[in-house]
Specification:
12 helices; Adenylosuccinate Synthetase, subunit A, domain 2; single chain; binds guanosine-5'-diphosphate; 20 strands; four-stranded mixed β-sheet; globular; binds 6-O-phosphoryl inosine monophosphate; binds magnesium ion
Amino acid sequence: MNCCVVGLQWGDEGKGKVVDILAEQSDIVVRYAGGANAGHTVIIGDQKFALHIMPSGAVRPGTECVIGNGVVVDPEILGGEIDGLNGRGISLEGRLFISENAHVVLDYHKMEDQLRENSLGKNKIGTTIRGIGPCYADKIGRSYAIRMADFRDMDDLKLKLTRTADYKNKLFGALYDAEPIDIEALFAKCLAYRDKLLRYVCNTTRHLHSAIDAGKNILFEGAQGALLDLDHGTFPFVTSSNSSALGMGAGCGVPAQRVERFIGLVKAYTTRVGAGPFPSEQDNEIGDTIREKGHEYGTTTGRPRRCGWFDAVAASYSARIGGINEIAMMHLDTLAGMKELKVCRAYKIDGVETTFFPSDAHELARVECVYETVPGWDEDISGVTKYEDLPATTKSYIALIEDIVKVPVTIVGVGPKRSQAIFRR
Ligand code: GDP
Ligand code: IMO
Ligand code: MG
């Protein structure tokens, strides 16, 4: 059975943990979107892994890892991840497959990301400065794009880089008075990237379809979340890829028809990093409590995450556009001890109630949340292993969300460890 795990909020829902658990029953784990802006945490015993480009299946030695064409690969970071895993006794030899069509993030993309954010001042997006937007922009623009396949012919790559540097130097010089790109230094880095990564580069679409024909189980690992989707998220405060489940097919060449389970991940509350509207945000003591109890600080940038109540309007929207048939709800343990909890079940815009999420950032900034208030629970649930053993109020809270979102919650997270997940099916 093939399965896709995708965030339904603004990222950091716990995808790394859930993918790691489900990877036990999978032959292959595939990343299909985003790049090193992602930060997926996997905790095994007392070891913690924070993966950025490498699929979270990497920590399981028998699992194949595929980096699809939709991912933007920062070779510096991916190389570092391979070394880091090697240093911990985990080898990727023979089980890592990087799409030849995946685009490459180079230093000038990160530089542009930073220069552009600086120039925007208070209007900045709050990106991760990992060069994501500039690299995807080059992909769409085509003329100055570099793909993993380009490491196969270094003479040709040097010509491409020289042309690209020439163009970008004129642009960045005029717009930002930036230092010119040092082409020799960049090329020297590319030689090292080639030596490290070229052996893994292949046609991953062909590889995945052969695996499907052979009856293998494939797990697709989303990055970011549906509300950060370039087309369907809270534009312009989004990432530069289709980070909802809709990006899966385009990002790896396997259509949704081949995937039986679309598991939408949510936290039992909502978080967001970076700028943009967030209707159920609690920029107050409640948000601070959630942040401290849930350790809500970015895995990639360390930034404090903005925290708020569960937004069922947003989750319903993400579930609908993604064809989600199951929900995994993480961090229920974090809510323990709060006297009452709120769930946003509708929005009010100009006094009119709606349950459809307006993804346009200007529209979304105008909505007011209509909350359902329910009692919380005091019990520490981090050791609970059976659904029946959860407090009645915890189960009611889950049931309320199921009732609004209209998708069953099949996995419940009660802590960051592998063992701290309850399965209902
Ligand atoms: P991802 O980007 O979706 O993979 O999520 P991150 O790794 O960025 O952030 C999720 C954080 O929550 C990580 O620190 C996880 O270890 C942690 N986590 C995941 N599930 C749970 C849970 O059920 N309870 C608690 N307390 N922490 C969790
Ligand atoms: P994972 O996979 C949370 C956010 C950034 C910023 C916006 C655009 O760990 O859930 P970008 O660098 O992509 O141009 O930034 O998107 N963002 C994330 N927020 N989790 C992520 O990934 C994110 N990846 C990007 O904070 O608001
Ligand atoms: Mg994350």
